[in-house]
């Protein structure tokens, strides 16, 4: 498959397709359609979609932590099954980082990953290597923090990143 993807900010018109992508991936928590509308409007500077053949095949959502303007939190990473194995998740995350780094002087990338999500763990490890910095892990949310049968969430902190 040709690995030339168009990476761009999402807009409101993308929210339904993003919702369907998250649903089809099957391993992520599916949030409300309203949340994806908010992400594509209020948070579009820290989110990105990957387009291939006029279809959204990747979505990453994130935000700058309100009390810590030097930290970019990556919330959800969804890559369509048809384009996996091309480092697309890493490319999208680094694209968001680079677009926001100039105005925010980002020193850290933070995320949480369930222990069973080995693909996401590898993505964040690769990002730390690419940015030539360290990565630290610790449990952020335990099973007891959730109502339903949800895995714990392990925090991945990448940085400090030298700009």
Automatic annotation (TrEMBL):
InterPro entries: Acyl_CoA_acyltransferase, Ectoine_EctA, GNAT_dom. Residues 5-158 form the N-acetyltransferase domain. It comes from the Bacteria. GO terms for molecular function: diaminobutyrate acetyltransferase activity. It is an enzyme of class 2 (transferase). PROSITE patterns: GNAT. Its EC number is 2.3.1.178. One of its GO terms (biological process) is ectoine biosynthetic process. Pathway: Amine and polyamine biosynthesis; ectoine biosynthesis; L-ectoine from L-aspartate 4-semialdehyde: step 2/3. Signal peptide: none annotated. Keywords: Acyltransferase, Transferase. Gene3D superfamilies: 3.40.630.30. Coiled coil: none annotated. Belongs to the acetyltransferase family. EctA subfamily. This is L-2,4-diaminobutyric acid acetyltransferase. It comes from Arcobacter ellisii. The lineage of its organism: Bacteria, Pseudomonadati, Campylobacterota, Epsilonproteobacteria, Campylobacterales.
């Amino acid at each position: 498959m040709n690995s030339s993807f168009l990476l761009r900010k999402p807009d409101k018109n993308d929210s339904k397709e993003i919702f369907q992508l998250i649903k089809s991936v099957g391993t992520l928590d599916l949030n409300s359609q309203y949340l994806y509308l908010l992400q594509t409007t209020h948070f579009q500077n820290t989110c990105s979609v990957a387009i291939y053949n006029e279809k959204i095949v990747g979505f990453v959502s994130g935000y700058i932590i309100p009390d810590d303007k030097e930290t970019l939190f990556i919330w959800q990473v969804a890559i369509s099954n048809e384009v996996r194995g091309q480092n697309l998740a890493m490319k999208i995350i680094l694209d968001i980082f680079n677009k926001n780094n100039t105005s925010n002087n980002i020193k850290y990338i933070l995320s949480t990953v369930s222990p069973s999500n080995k693909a996401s763990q590898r993505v964040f490890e690769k990002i730390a290597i690419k940015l030539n910095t360290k990565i630290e892990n610790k449990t952020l949310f335990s099973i007891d923090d959730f109502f339903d049968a949800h895995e714990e969430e392990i925090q991945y902190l990448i940085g400090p990143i030298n700009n």
